[in-house]
Amino acid sequence: MYLNCHTYYSLRFGTFSEVELLELARENHVTQPALTDINNTSACLNFIRKAEQMGMKPVVGVDFRNGTDQQFVGIAKNNEGYTGLNTFLSGHLREDKAFPRRAPSIPHTIIIYPLEKTEAHQFQDFRDNEYIGVSVNDLRKLPLSACRHLKDKLVVLQPVTFRNKSDFNAHKLLRAIDNNTLLSKLSPGEVASEDEKMYPPENLYRAFGEYHFILENTARLMKECHITFDFSAAKQSSNQQTYTGDKARDEEYLLELCMKNIRYRYPDDQKMALERLHRELELIKQKDFISYFLINYDIVDYAKQKGYFHVGRGSGANSIVAYLLGITDVDPLELDLYFERFINLFRSTPPDFDLDFSWRDRDDVTRYIFERFPNVALLGTYVTFNYKGVVRALGKVFGLPKEDIDRLSAGNYDPYKLDQPSQLVLKYGKLLQGMPSHISVHASGILISEVPLNTFSATFLPPKGYATVQFDMHIAEDVGLYKFDILGQRGLAKIKETLEIIRYNRPEEPPLDIHDVNRFKKDPKIHSMLESAQCMGCFYVESPAMRMLLQKLQVDNYLGLVAASSIIRPGVAKSGMMREYILRHQDPERVQQAHPVLLKIMPETYGVMVYQEDVIKVTHHFAGLTLAEADVLRRGMSGKFRSRSEFRTVEEKFVANCRQKGYDDEVTLEVWKQIESFAGYAFAKGHSASYAIESYQSLFLRAYYPLEFMVAVLNNGGGFYRPEIYIHEARMLGATVHVPCINRSRMENRISGNDIYLGFGYLKELEERVCYRVVQERDKNGSFASLEDFIDRVAISIEQLAILIRIGAFRFTGTDKYELLWQAHLRQGVVPGEESQYRMFRMQQKEFDVPVLQTTELEAAFDQLELLGFCLSSPFELLQERSKSNKGAQDLKYCEGKYIDIYGYLVAVKKTQTHKGEEMFFGTFIDHYGEVFDVVVFPPVARRNRFRGKGIYRLYGKVANEFGFFSIEVVKMKKEDYISDPRFES
Predict the structure, then answer these.
(1) Ramachandran region of residue 836, left (φ > 0), alpha (ψ -120 to 50) or beta?
(2) In what helix (H) or strand (E) does residue 74 lie, and over which residues does it extend?
């Protein structure tokens, strides 16, 4: 009898989930609730799935509203009607159109107009599928309504939005947040009636006792509704079923592509490759994943034709088929990649392919996919209210001062001293926390479906400009839709741009095959860089944590880097197994401490779980779970899937099987702890290998073309560090770095020989349009001869011109910049703005006597600090007091166990917490010789010594050596003062 139920997917309106709605219905003995969220069908698929599990008959539809103004409710009679409602809703959402008073003709649907709207608009003629909705509140109006005679058109339309008073209060707060207003100023029209609740059916029967025909009409309509989707484990994929239009032809084409490339990939011996290939193809055919592989191949093939670089990652990198198709560059035979992690007979989902493209190329690849395939949409995701966000939002709703909101948001308060509004913020913050706030776009997921995606939900149009479904990846998988992951990253752009820079800066160099990774894997220079962690700017291996791990493991080969790429992930560290792996790597005797079964399963990693497939290996071989159960466990280790009953069942079976095998509970629980702590954060081995290949490509370029590589790094947003750190690294590698120059610079950085000219883009206050004018004029009419020539040719205000002069962009003139500033003001400062540029005839410039002025190096450094955010001279030259220590990073190995006094320029700080929740820090610095060193600030010291932004610190501490990695355990530190700005001295 309830045809208008809302969940919290009626965004910033509803107050509970679709599962809680079903539980509410069961409590009230309602067997057929209808979910009709406001302008949204996000919850419908999971509602249908859960309703069937709970023995209820689901009904779904949409509550169409303009704001809070209800126009009509649409109910789907069947799947076709549901598609029609989604299509109609999508059109309005994507065009941001208001909904009309009357619904269009949508086959296989029921349209219900609220009694109030029917009377207000004087609706008289109704289609067969159109009805008038009467709520409990409407019953007192019905005897006086003209609609009372339309007995066959009246149905119950009792909205359900709340369960209790707490829900109603939460609803009012959500409405205030949505309207960005104080709760006290919230318009009553924005709030639903407090009686929008679900009552037991007998209460409704009693309320509508005089109108039995309304109850009968409603029951008849609900009997007409039947909607279902296949959520079973054996469901057919909803992805596009064929690539060529014919499954048999798809099979032939896939085999043809693989055989075409097998000699290229395996030029010497194809026997093992052919065996693995046919084994994989048989399973791919049985699991009906052929079109999935071919579509991924199509995307990659398009990218290659356009000259785009890509990296194929995920579990699909374990596949020889993917390797032969060029989807990945990881050889599964070389790395002995676990076949069952890629695919097995019991796996219902296709393998993961994460296709990385340059951040510059990704948008074009996405465009191609939408144009190439007929049924495509981006995958949605929901942004939920987190603690800080909801506290800030509610703080505004209750009218708290900004200082109070900041204090509550930071958790910096005494709960016993809070006023009542602050207490209410925290109370209702807990209630709203975790609710969806708004729908967004998944970071990478694209759906390519066999049928229109409105079959599953409505779509909306985010700023990206592509249709996006209203549900997330977990719901997509439930209904057999498996995403294609198209990601953008800067590492590939750095590689591609480095090659372009080499072509113009070293034209004599022969063409470089960056894909000849097998050669790179044998290069001793690269291995030496890895072992010493000289990896600044290189993909995935440049961070302080990775640099530390490389040194501790003494990584000097490709396989070592593959392992390190996964060990660095947070799960392995959290489980304590990163340290154990290092210990076993350093001490072969310690390997014997591993459980014999685990050591047999994972000899390569010393019995330590490092890769995602290790979860499958251990649960299958150690605990005796089936491969299907093992895969459920792997997938369930993170996110929404963990709470599902099938995951809990497998977890219980894991423990029971281990006991049956005779393992001690202590061993069983330790193994389970390791699985649980890292499985959701670990990489598949093929995934790590893909990262390692890109790392090797970056390392090769840094080793042999270091300056070109650093310019490309800077031009693509840097990486882990600030731009000035990469500029410093370029200078350490032999570059002469110049501030922007009007005759040499562009928006991006440029290199000529060993000279790097910084781009105009670093000048924070310089307008982009001015930069483009300078470059366009220079490209068209040649270099500028003087300041006067520049002023005559480029439209620029005196303020913008002053920025260029102060940074030294006119230093080619040989005139001091103070003199140039005088000249600029004398020649151009008379006329405001850029008007002086637009004269019909060039004016004869009057000559002025300008005093002789001289800019000091310190003044230039402070100009650079102001305009660029950093200076090109050493920051140590700016110290107010000279360093009292000449110790540097190279001295650490000679001072092991001793205390050291050292100065360092702050590069990066990482804040973390101990297992007791105490705050501590890891810091990275550059010494006055330009070398990098690391420090640790433990909680007792961290409480007394704080990092205070970038600058030079004097540090005193004990030198520690852990597995060959030297760092300083700080006892005390102090940020040193710079000299006063000489530009403002009298």
Answers:
(1) alpha
(2) strand 69-76
